[in-house]
Predict the structure.
Amino acid sequence: MLEIKTYPLGPIQTNCYFVGNDKGEYLIVDPGEEGQKIRTELEKLQGKPLAILLTHAHFDHIGAVEDIRRTYQIPVYIHEAEKDWLMEPALNGSSRYPGLPLVRNEKADYFLEEGEMKIGPFRFEVRHTPGHSPGSVSFIFHDAQIAVVGDTLFKQSIGRTDLPGGDTQLLLHSIHEKLLSLDDEVIIYPGHGLPTTPGEEKDQNPFLNGF
């Protein structure tokens, strides 16, 4: 049985997720900042991280990647469309905000492709959900009825599209085809804020009228 733990991190309170099993193994999704806090929480859980999964490479989702990768010697996965964003502050957005540190990581170890995927005992589906950014992806854990969707869809809102590579119509298409097509009861875990479900967003999200 999978469990998911949420840790809002950094100045924008980006949700970092630990997706774990009953053996204490975890996938770390979007370690955006506060590497020390992530390590402390893993120690509390006596957890063994197996990999870092990135929904996309905006700075607030990747700020602690190197800390966690080097500490635990685990691989980093990202969509190939944003392979350079990990390393370039001008692409990941960290150079846009004076006073915040520039985020520069090493290259990803593996590229994510749409379809079924297995890491250790974890089986899940990768869905390419561009629009907020070109390489945005969502991770669907069908057996547990949960989806981690980054900044594609929020509770009664959608991801912003005014950043480089953003595309509103593409985002709406991704949401409709890749997320609202899930069972209405699937729990959607966004990059910021509270969880939601496809059923709730179909009924209550003002940005999705007409879909």
About this structure: The mean pLDDT is 96. The radius of gyration is 16 Å. Helices lie at 35-45, 59-62, 65-72, 89-92, 168-179, 198-204.
